[in-house]
Amino acid sequence: MALESLDVRRRSASETRAPDIRSRQEVAKLIDISRCIGCKACQAACMEWNDLREEVGATAGAYDNPADLTASSWTVMRFFEEELPERGLQWLIVKDGCLHCSDPGCLKACPAPGAIVQLSNGIVDFQQEACIGCGYCQAGCPFDVPRYSPKDDKAYKCTLCSDRVAVGLEPACIKTCPTQALSFGAKEDMRALADERVGELKERGYGQAQVYDPSGVGGTHVLYVMPHGDPALYRKPRDPSISPLVALWRSTFARTLGAVTMGAVFLAGFFHWMKVGPVDPDARPEGGEEKRS
Amino acid sequence: MSVTPPRHGHAFAAERPPDALQRYSEASRLTHWAVALAYVLLFCSGLALFHPFFFWLSGLFGSAALMRVLHPFIGVALAVLFFAYASRLWRENLLLPSDRRWLRGMLGYMTGRDELRVEGKYNAGQKLMYWSMIGFVAGLLATGLLLWRPYVAPAIPVDGRRLAAVLHAVFAFVMFVGIGVHVYAALWTRGSMRAMTQGWVTRRWARYHHPGWYERETAGEPPPDRRESA
C-alpha cells in the first residue's frame, strides 16, 4: 500500500547517492477541479493540521483569501472568471500549492545540503532547520510555489502532510474535502482514477478535459483533472520544466567546470613557477636590465 | 663597524634601501588589502553556495545561514572599497600604443625573456586586469543585488533572478581566474608583494619593470652615475 514509511530518495546539494535499497510506492494527490465547490475546507484543514495561522488581511474584492500562497498558507483556493468561446462565463476554482515534481527544480537549485529532500514516495519536503534562506528554491520552481518568510528567513510550502503519510494517514486536505474533489493514494491508482474521471467528463460534453501530470518535470505527485483542458485557464504552465538557466547554473557540468578551472589556475601557477621561477631584477648583475629590446 | 653588502647580485632586498622609491601610499595599501580580504571571504562563501563539495567552507562563517546573510553585505563593502580605490588609478591605467607592443611580447616575458619597455606606472597586463576587474566587480555587484534576500530579490521577476544567478556564477569564476593571475604575477615578480605590503620598491626593480615611471619619479634628481656611486 502507498501509505508507509518515508525513505529519502534525493537530498539537495548532496553529491553522493541516497539510500535506495527500498523502493516505496509513489503516492499522489488528485485534485478534480470539476468536483471542487471552492469551500476552502482543505485550506482550513491544512492550517489546522500544520498549526499555521495566516495574518488577518483585507479583502481584495475576490473570494481568494489569502490572495496568494504565503509562508503560512501552503494551499490557497484561487478563483478565476473565464469567458469560454462555447460555454460562456465559467467560474474556475483551482486549489493551488506544491505539485511535488518528480524532478524538483527547488531541490536542484538549493545550495544547502538536505534542506530539500525528495522522499521515495515522491513527496518533496522542505527541512527548514537546514534552510539558509537564499530563495534559490523560488528561482528553481517552475510553478512559483515556495514562499519565503521574512520572520525566520526560511522557505515554506506544502509538505503533502508527509508526517501524516508516514504513519498511514492521508493528507489533511484530502481528509476534509466534502465533495471527493480530492483523492489520495498510489500514483498509478490516482492516474487511473483521473483518466476515468476525464472519460466521464468527455461523455458529459467536456471534450477538452485532460489530466495535468506534466512530463517536463518528470510528472508530479499532485494531479489535476482539468475539465476545460487548457492548463493556462487554470493559471498553470502548459509545459512546465526546470528553466534552462537553472539547469545550466546547477548542472554537474557547470559545477565541475568551475572546480576544474580553479584547480587549473593553481596548477598553472605551480608549474610556471617550477619552470620559469621568479623574476627578481635585484638579483641580476648590475646593468642587466639595460639590454631590453 | 658595519659591512656594506656588495652591490652586484645582492638579490631580494629585505630592508628598505635609503634610495627606495615609494610605489603605493599607505592609504592605497590598506584599501587594497581590505578589498583582498573581502574578496577572500566572498570567494569562500560563494564557492560554498555554488558547489556542495565546498559547502564545508560555510563553517568559516559560523553557520551557512549566517554566511548567506553576510555574503551580500561583504559584497557591497568590496564594491564600495574597490571603486573608491580604482577611481584614483584610472589615469595611470589608460591604454597607450606601447601597451600593444608589450602584450605582443607578453608570452616571451612569461617564459623567462626580458620585459618590453613599460611607459607608465603599470604594464599592459596590469591595465587589462584593472579594466576587467572594473567590469567584473560591477557585474557581480549588479547581479548580486538582484539576488539579495530579503531586500531586493522579492521585487525581481523570477527569470531575472535566474539569469542573474547564472551570470553571477560566470562572473565569479572568470574573476577567480583574473585574481589568480594577479596574485601569481605578484608572487612571480619578486618585489611586487613587498611593494603592496610596505609600499616601496628598489630602484633596480623600478628601472626593470617600469622604466617610464622610474624616469618620471627621478626626473628632478642628479644624474644616476653620481648618485649610484655615492
From TrEMBL, chain A:
<dbReference type="Pfam" id="PF09163">
    <property type="entry name" value="Form-deh_trans"/>
</dbReference>
<keyword id="KW-1003">Cell membrane</keyword>
<keyword id="KW-0249">Electron transport</keyword>
<dbReference type="InterPro" id="IPR017900">
    <property type="entry name" value="4Fe4S_Fe_S_CS"/>
</dbReference>
<dbReference type="InterPro" id="IPR038384">
    <property type="entry name" value="Formate_DH_C_sf"/>
</dbReference>
<dbReference type="Pfam" id="PF13247">
    <property type="entry name" value="Fer4_11"/>
</dbReference>
<feature type="domain" description="4Fe-4S ferredoxin-type">
    <location>
        <begin position="27"/>
        <end position="57"/>
    </location>
</feature>
<feature type="domain" description="4Fe-4S ferredoxin-type">
    <location>
        <begin position="122"/>
        <end position="151"/>
    </location>
</feature>
<keyword id="KW-0813">Transport</keyword>
<dbReference type="InterPro" id="IPR015246">
    <property type="entry name" value="Formate_DH_TM"/>
</dbReference>
<keyword id="KW-0479">Metal-binding</keyword>
<keyword id="KW-0677">Repeat</keyword>
<keyword id="KW-0408">Iron</keyword>
<dbReference type="InterPro" id="IPR051555">
    <property type="entry name" value="FDH_Electron_Transfer_Unit"/>
</dbReference>
<keyword id="KW-0472">Membrane</keyword>
<keyword id="KW-0411">Iron-sulfur</keyword>
<protein>
    <submittedName>
        <fullName>Nitrate-inducible formate dehydrogenase subunit beta</fullName>
    </submittedName>
</protein>
<dbReference type="InterPro" id="IPR006470">
    <property type="entry name" value="Formate_DH_bsu_Proteobacteria"/>
</dbReference>
<dbReference type="InterPro" id="IPR017896">
    <property type="entry name" value="4Fe4S_Fe-S-bd"/>
</dbReference>
<keyword id="KW-0004">4Fe-4S</keyword>
<keyword id="KW-0812">Transmembrane</keyword>
<dbReference type="InterPro" id="IPR014603">
    <property type="entry name" value="Formate_DH_Fe-S_su"/>
</dbReference>
UniProtKB/TrEMBL annotation, chain B:
<keyword id="KW-0472">Membrane</keyword>
<keyword id="KW-0813">Transport</keyword>
<protein>
    <submittedName>
        <fullName>Formate dehydrogenase cytochrome b556 subunit</fullName>
    </submittedName>
</protein>
<feature type="domain" description="Cytochrome b561 bacterial/Ni-hydrogenase">
    <location>
        <begin position="23"/>
        <end position="198"/>
    </location>
</feature>
<feature type="transmembrane region" description="Helical">
    <location>
        <begin position="33"/>
        <end position="57"/>
    </location>
</feature>
<keyword id="KW-0249">Electron transport</keyword>
<dbReference type="InterPro" id="IPR051817">
    <property type="entry name" value="FDH_cytochrome_b556_subunit"/>
</dbReference>
<feature type="transmembrane region" description="Helical">
    <location>
        <begin position="163"/>
        <end position="187"/>
    </location>
</feature>
<dbReference type="InterPro" id="IPR006471">
    <property type="entry name" value="Formate_DH_gsu"/>
</dbReference>
<comment type="similarity">
    <text>Belongs to the formate dehydrogenase gamma subunit family.</text>
</comment>
<dbReference type="InterPro" id="IPR011577">
    <property type="entry name" value="Cyt_b561_bac/Ni-Hgenase"/>
</dbReference>
<keyword id="KW-1133">Transmembrane helix</keyword>
<dbReference type="InterPro" id="IPR016174">
    <property type="entry name" value="Di-haem_cyt_TM"/>
</dbReference>
<keyword id="KW-0479">Metal-binding</keyword>
<keyword id="KW-0812">Transmembrane</keyword>
<feature type="transmembrane region" description="Helical">
    <location>
        <begin position="128"/>
        <end position="151"/>
    </location>
</feature>
<keyword id="KW-0349">Heme</keyword>
<feature type="transmembrane region" description="Helical">
    <location>
        <begin position="69"/>
        <end position="90"/>
    </location>
</feature>
<keyword id="KW-1003">Cell membrane</keyword>
<dbReference type="Pfam" id="PF01292">
    <property type="entry name" value="Ni_hydr_CYTB"/>
</dbReference>
<keyword id="KW-0408">Iron</keyword>
